[in-house]
Design a protein that fits this description.
Length: 289
Amino acid sequence: RTLRLGVICLAAALVMMLGALALRLLHPGPGHPDWIAAACDVGQGDAFAVRTGPDAALVIDAGPDPSALDTCLDRLGIRTIEMLVITHVHEDHFAGASAAAEGREVKSVAFSSAEQGIPGEIRGLADEFAVDPERLGRGGSGELGPVRWEVLWPPAAGGSAGLTENDASAVLLIRTAGINFLFTGDLEEDAARQMLRTSQELRTEQVHVLKVAHHGARNSGQALPEELRPLLALISVGEENTYGHPAPETLQNLETAGALVARTDQLGSFILHIDDAGKLMVNRLGRGP
């Protein structure tokens, strides 16, 4: 049940604090002035934004291509990045970050990595933006305007020893506009199961939108869709990529869990917003400037 170009889909009602929400995909069009989150089409990589103010956002990962990130942030009208999160230090998640400050202010940089200390790539970004980088770990949290964020993984700041770089990914539970998002970096199956065992938040709160780990690779696993049963799954992935992402098994797991899937390789950049009827909408931005 993947959301495809030009198709209008309606999901089952989602019961939450705001009442019954439903999900559908709009025909291509301009960005909505009240968008709450966005997926940037950066090719084979990740870059997401969660709106924190009229022209401000929390940005999670930056993709491999500075120009692609710059174009997306411009089209979203972002002039201030309250926090730039690099979930882990792989190029498809951080190499585009140099564009973040093109005509914008970057107020803070946060990261996770299996590498002890501050990786050189993160230090370079922090120096470029004139900020001190913050390492993320379980228990970290904060508020940025209407957005509340909480770190569920890795186990503690500096507690990534013995993990692969993928499994050291920062996992953020983000609450905004009555919707709970889970951003997972490239977390793989075994680490995801460990996180589920240690995260009381995921047993007591509904995750409405799941960012599928590792571009939908087979090793993103079935644990999170099976346990969380999100309404919507986001996959950031390059069109006709050579890795076979997203894997058929991953898409089947999401379908079995009852999730609709929105993919950047099919939709380009897209936004999420809530319409006047209380429906959670997915609106294409496309790939053009």
